[in-house]
Amino acid sequence: MKPVKLAIVGVGKIVYDQHVPAITHNPGYELVATASRNHSIPGVPSYASIDDMFAARPDIEAVSLCMPPQYRYKAAHAALSAGKHVFLEKPPGATLSEVESLKSLAASRGLTLFASWHSRHAPAVQTLKSHLAKDAPKEMTVIWKEDVRHWHPGQEWIWEAGGLGVFDPGINALSIVTEILPWDIFLRSATLEFPANRHSPIAANLHFENAAGIKVNAEFDWRQTGEQTWDILVKTGNSSVRLSKGGSTLQIDGAACALPEEGEYPSLYRHFRDLIAAGASDVDLSPLRHVADAFMLGKRLVTDPFIE
Ligand code: NAP
After folding, report:
1. Could you say which of 13, 74, 84, 90 is catalytic?
2. 8: Cβ below 6 Å to ligand 1?
3. What are the structural domains of the chain?
4. Whole-angstrom distance, CA of residue 90 vs CA of residue 82
5. Active site includes 215?
6. SS3 161
7. 84 and 35 in contact (C-beta within 8 Å)?
8. Which of 68, 87, 216, 292 is 20 to 30 A from 12 in CA distance terms?
């Protein structure tokens, strides 16, 4: 099959770190252009806006949209309207409704829309999912604690409305939880801590259950210095399981599991290519829905101002 002519919109940290290496090592793609106001990729033609790019390069077949979520809908609508397949970075948008609207637009045009969740492609996730399908979870605890100053230096959008605050990493944990659990969960109570000078939370405590009352508790915190924690602990009927390092390691009853070496973004781009070839879309909004529920149901506490 011929490579898909792909463009990237919104060039920044994740594009340089992950998208460019994953795309350039995949023969299923040809990276033909970027559209970004201030950034570019060496050797790739760059344009200041998505409209300028589509006017200059009508041969573009697909776009990856990697700007902050508050600004993604307009670009996605323009791309689908211009007949391009669309890869959405996570979270897929600023609201559930705008992504539903994109889903309908993609379906009506016969185009692929992929709401990507990179953490679902971490090496341990499918192994853990298979384990839990055979040995059902009785209790789950998610601990996702990291240092915002280290991972998001100078990023103002994460603190603005729609930037999700600590749910920007926390939604990665929820994308794994919703992938591995054999049943649906829903939020019962939550507490969100907002710095006095910011519009988005710096910490959250979430208590979910399933219909049978099995509990999933999650702690997200952006104030963790020193060792960083991205763990999911599960007690099942017969085993004790620890997924750690965001899904790159897995222990069952203390024994390390052998895992595939596959990276998250190479796997995402293979899936996007398969979706395009199959004429299909993949838009699962469950991680974003749980975050929306947390903003709707969660108690709001005001905490110390956040100074960068
Ligand atoms: P970023 O570097 O702060 O932003 C990406 C680029 O978006 C910026 O360089 C900027 O490019 C463009 N942009 C910023 N504000 C914009 C606006 N108002 N309108 C249009 N474009 C704007 O962010 P990032 O860390 O790459 O994250 C981008 C997305 O990827 C987020 O949804 C994030 O959750 C997700 N993600 C990030 C990571 C990570 O480790 N950073 C990991 C996985 C997923 P120009 O100034 O050139 O327009």
Report:
1. 90
2. no
3. 4-115 (3.40.50.720), 122-260+292-303 (3.30.360.10)
4. 22
5. no
6. coil
7. no
8. 292
pLDDT tens string 244-264? 999 999 999 999 999 998 899
Q: What Rg, from alpha-carbon coordinates, does the chain have?
A: 20
Q: Give the distance (Å) from ligand 1 centre to CA of residue 155.
A: 8
Nearest-CA residue for ligand 1 atom 1 is 12
pLDDT digits (tens, 9 = 90+) for 54-87: 999 999 999 999 999 999 999 999 999 999 999 9
CB 193 within 8 A of CB 170: no
| pLDDT number for residue 51 | 97
The rounded distance, in Å, linking the Cα atoms of 68 and 62 is: 19
Joined tokens for residue 69: 């979520």
Placement of tokens 């979910």 in the chain: 208
Between the CA of 66 and the centroid of ligand 1 the distance, in Å, is 6
pLDDT score at 170: 98
Angle at CA 170, nearest 5°, toward 168 and 174?
120
Ligand 1 midpoint to CA 165 (Å): 14
Whole-prediction pTM value?
A: 0.98
Sign for the CA dihedral angle at 93, 94, 97, 98 comes to negative
